[in-house]
DNA sequence: TGATAAGTCAACCATATGGGTGAATATTGA
DNA sequence: TCAATATTCACCCATATGGTTGACTTATCA
């Protein structure tokens, strides 16, 4: 998987309210089991399990299995990719603006 | 539409490669027409038009119509919401970690 | 005025997504 | 050993998504 697909996965995973809530819960509570996470939502355990899988595939959550219990933990590092993308956009934007400025200034010279 | 839905829209809009490319083009080139944008992609004008609509509904793009031409421009401000969300997550994370640290230190006391 | 150009709208298609249920698997504990 | 627990897997369903084509509207300009 290339960087672009990875970024798409992260953004798509983060683009769902339930999944963002799961992430928030993990960030504030630390590692939690699937059932424990599911108790916060009005949807089946299975649906929550599927959301967790999406987060996991985006690298936003890691799993530690102890016996029959799966402990999920938030992994914020991948979100840096989205910040990096935004920062890149802003830098391109600034480049263009400064180029425009230079153009206007040189026109003033004439 | 509440903040959460708005954030979902932004993240979903940004979660597609084609749409991110459109945003990048607009950031580096400034306002561009739909046809001009579409020329960069191997898909129909209509498909690009639909992607633009998604970006527009997320507030990531604005439209200025002059006669039959529609000029699209990038709007980076909504992306700050995603940064704010990330920042909030990080601050919750730090809160928990410092609470943990305090706990461990007080245990050392005993 | 009439052809062409720029876009959107509407309908369609295949696949993805978010939800559900029931069965299967693996671990625990009595 | 056997029942209960934790979780995933395999389907199923409705709706969303990303793409297509064709028709429609509005401007432009020869």
From TrEMBL, chains A, B:
Organism superkingdom: Bacteria
Family annotation (SMART domains): HTH_ARSR
Residue ranges annotated for the HTH arsR-type domain, each copy included: 1-94
Pfam families, per the entry: HTH_20
MF (Gene Ontology): DNA-binding transcription factor activity
UniProt signal peptide: none
PANTHER family: SLL0088 PROTEIN, TRANSCRIPTIONAL REGULATORY PROTEIN
NCBIfam families: HTH_metalloreg
The name this protein goes by in its record: ArsR family transcriptional regulator
Source species: Aquibium carbonis
Lineage, opening ranks: Bacteria, Pseudomonadati, Pseudomonadota, Alphaproteobacteria, Hyphomicrobiales
């Amino acid at each position: 998987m290339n960087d672009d697909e990875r970024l798409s996965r992260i953004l798509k995973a983060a683009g769902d309210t339930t999944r963002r809530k799961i992430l928030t819960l993990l960030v504030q509570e630390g590692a939690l089991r699937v059932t424990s996470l599911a108790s916060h939502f009005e949807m089946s355990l299975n649906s929550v399990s599927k959301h967790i899988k999406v987060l996991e595939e985006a690298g936003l959550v890691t799993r530690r299995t102890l016996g029959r219990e799966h402990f999920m933990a938030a992994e914020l590092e991948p979100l840096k990719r989205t910040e990096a993308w935004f920062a890149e956009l802003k830098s391109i934007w600034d480049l263009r603006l400064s180029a425009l400025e230079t153009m206007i200034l040189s026109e003033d010279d004439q």
